[in-house]
Every structure is written in C-alpha cells, then in structure tokens.
Amino acid sequence: MSIGTILLIVLVLALIGVIPAWPHAQNWGYGPSGIVGVILIIVLVLFLLGRL
User: From CA 30, how far away is CA 47, in angstroms rounded?
Assistant: First the structure.
C-alpha cells in the first residue's frame, strides 16, 4: 500500500472517531469532525489528482 492509501484510511478513521454521537465527544460539537472532513476532502482530491 502506498502512503496516500494509508493516510486516507487514517483520516477516515479519525473522521469516524470525532462524530459527536460518541460519548467521549458529546461536548465537542461539530468543529473537530468538520476540520477532519475538510482535511479528508483535500487528501482525497490530491489522491485522485495523483499528487500523493
């Protein structure tokens, strides 16, 4: 697996981990998941363009 694929998998897992439905993240709001979502979109675009 390439580094881009590993990075994409880690970011997807991080996005699932910061969903406010989890008990440890109820007081966080949507900020962390929004930030991780934006990073995930950027990495996905770079991956699709072949830059990663």
Answer: 25
